[in-house]
Design goal:
Keywords: Coiled coil. With about 210 residues, this protein is mainly α. Helices cover about 90% and strands about 0% of the residues. The protein has one domain. The protein contains 5 helices and no strands. α2 packs antiparallel against α3 (about 95-105) and α4 packs antiparallel against α5 (about 135-205).
Length: about 210
């Protein structure tokens, strides 16, 4: 058999050469596995850091939402106070109640676009009332300004809610990546351990 192999021009490796080849193979595999582990571990650390930052952002968003809700109601309260002091006393009960109902709709939880429509309608009605009662034009401007501030607060609130939804979606994607990465790291850790043991075994034989 050996003669046939030699005749075919094939050289049989010695035991020492086979051991050296096994050592080299496991060293190469170990280096590749360690490199892959380090890269994946670095990516996982970054994703976890991103999630931490997003969590902090969401806390700040929640705080800002509460501030905006309060500001919006404060602006409407200020507008209402001006109306009660300067306009309602000059109106008949039906007209005053109608304005109060419109104001109640504005103060509710509505979309900024709907709020703009209702505000324009309210201000148009108020303009006619101001003119009819001989009230100062400045009252109209003050009420309009406060309602606009309230609408701006509602607009920012809507934008924050939309951003939150996107963050929740991104969060789900990142958590999935973390789960997958941890599973891969566990697999690589086992792979590294196996190659380390194999390398240690072959290096002892080589010695």
């Amino acid at each position: 058999m050996t003669e046939n192999i030699e005749e075919a021009g094939i050289r049989v490796l010695t035991e020492g050469e086979l051991i050296s080849a096994a050592v080299e193979k496991h060293r190469r595999f170990l280096e590749e596995a360690r490199k892959e582990f380090a890269e994946l571990d670095s990516k996982l650390t970054q994703i976890e850091e991103d999630i931490k930052n997003v969590k902090n952002s969401r806390i700040r968003m929640e705080e800002r939402k509460e501030v905006l809700k309060e500001k919006r109601q404060q602006f409407y309260h200020q507008a209402e106070t001006i109306l009660e002091k300067e306009i309602f006393l000059k109106l008949d009960t039906i007209t005053a109640r109608k304005l109060q109902e419109e104001l109640k709709k504005l103060k509710g939880q509505i979309e900024p676009e709907e709020e703009q429509r209702l505000k324009d309608y309210f201000i148009e009605n108020l303009r006619e009332i101001v003119q009819a009662t001989g009230s100062e034009e400045n009252i109209l401007l003050q009420v309009d300004a406060r309602m606009e501030e309230a609408r701006n607060a509602n607009q920012e609130l809507k934008e924050i809610i939309q951003s939150e939804k996107q963050l929740v979606e991104d969060d789900g994607s990142k958590n999935e990546k973390i789960s997958k990465s941890r599973s891969q790291l566990k697999r690589l850790s086992t792979k590294i351990k196996n190659h380390e043991e194999a390398l240690n075994y072959w290096e002892k034989l080589k010695a």
